[in-house]
Q: What sequence folds into this?
């Protein structure tokens, strides 16, 4: 089993240097352990310049958001998670949606020794705005060519409300996880298109802590953001 933090450590976050307006979170990498609770707290930092909302009001230049998730991984390959994204710690207006809350389900199906099919769905809404049902579904193949290296790719669907577009969207996604040592790893995901999911996020982990950056897709309306957070597991064994 992965090393487990013995204490819940308060997350004191220092904003990473970046600028922009970010995208919706979608994690296509399931928890590898079973019968385990996983907690993740992440801060995203956005620096907007000359930005205005739909009413023409100037937005705060600096915004700090917190994303919090708690999930459980079952023995039969199902990861269930409750997540709240983009809750303002300071500033605001850098995201299309704030304090959006979802139930996330991911099912891993083993096809061969090194090949898995991963199916996932996110469903929820925004509680500080007129109710709109948000839905994201994805299906990816995950391949582990050598120990410590996992690559995945597939397609995703996002409904029009979450995409902030007049129509639903289907696109492709790809990514990898590279575990160089038990304490050091890198995770990356990319989503194509021109919607709230589009772009890439790269995180560098040391033990349970990580820093990273959100990189926008051209024409998506998303921009750069700095990432810092903590992710740890609590085993029932």
A:
């Amino acid at each position: 089993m992965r090393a487990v933090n013995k204490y819940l450590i308060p997350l004191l976050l220092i904003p990473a240097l970046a600028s922009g307006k970010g995208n919706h979170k979608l994690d296509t990498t399931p928890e590898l352990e079973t019968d385990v609770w996983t907690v993740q707290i992440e801060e995203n930092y956005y620096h907007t310049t000359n930005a205005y909302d739909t009413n023409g009001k100037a937005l705060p230049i600096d915004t700090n958001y917190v994303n919090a998730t708690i999930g459980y991984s079952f023995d039969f390959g199902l990861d269930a998670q409750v997540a709240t994204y983009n809750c303002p710690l300071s500033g605001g207006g850098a995201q299309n949606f704030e304090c959006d809350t979802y139930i996330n389900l991911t099912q891993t199906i083993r096809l061969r020794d090194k090949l898995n099919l991963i199916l996932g769905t996110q469903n929820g809404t925004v509680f500080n705005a007129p109710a709109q049902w948000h839905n994201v579904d994805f299906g990816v193949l995950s391949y582990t060519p050598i120990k410590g290296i996992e690559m995945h790719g597939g397609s995703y669907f996002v409904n029009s409300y979450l995409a902030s577009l007049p129509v639903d969207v289907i696109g492709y996604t790809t990514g990898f996880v590279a575990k160089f040592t038990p304490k050091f790893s890198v995770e990356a995901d990319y989503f194509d298109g021109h919607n709230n999911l589009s772009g890439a996020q790269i995180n560098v982990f040391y033990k349970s802590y990580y820093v990273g950056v959100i990189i926008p897709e051209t024409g998506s309306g998303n921009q750069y953001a700095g990432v810092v957070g903590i992710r740890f597991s609590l085993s029932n064994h």
